[in-house]
Amino acid sequence: MPTINIQLFEGRTTEQKREYAKALTEATVKVLGCSPAAVDIIFQDVKKSDWASGGELWSDKT
């Protein structure tokens, strides 16, 4: 059973997540040969102030 963890900046709509989950599930089934029911996807919304790249918080970037 593949479990896919997705971390995104907060603000995506439920419809965007629904569409993304469907696309990820279809790709996983195609590549791994598992059933769609075996694919778990976990979305984690992250605030820009809780994510940094290159030592700089995304909330500080302009």
Structural account:
The chain is of the alpha+beta class and 62 residues long. The chain has one domain (3-46): 2-Layer Sandwich (Macrophage Migration Inhibitory Factor), CATH 3.30.429.10. It has 1 helix and 4 strands; from the N terminus they run βαβββ. It has one helix at residues 14-32; strands spanning 3-9, 40-46, 52-53, 56-57. The strands form 2 sheets. It has a two-stranded parallel sheet. A two-stranded antiparallel ribbon has the order 3-4. A hairpin with a 2-residue loop joins β3 and β4. The model has no long low-confidence stretch (mean pLDDT 97). Keywords: Isomerase. It holds the Pfam family Tautomerase. It comes from Azospirillum ramasamyi.
What's the CATH first level?
Answer: Alpha Beta
Shape: elongated
Order of helices and strands, N to C? EHEEE
CATH architecture: 2-Layer Sandwich
Q: Structurally, how many domains make up the residues?
A: 1
CATH topology: Macrophage Migration Inhibitory Factor
Main beta-sheet annotation: 2 strands, parallel
Report, as a whole number of angstroms, the end-to-end distance: 40 Å
Give me the Rg, rounded: 15 Å
Domain 4-oxalocrotonate tautomerase-like: 2-60
Family: Belongs to the 4-oxalocrotonate tautomerase family.
Pfam families: Tautomerase (PF01361)
GO molecular function: isomerase activity
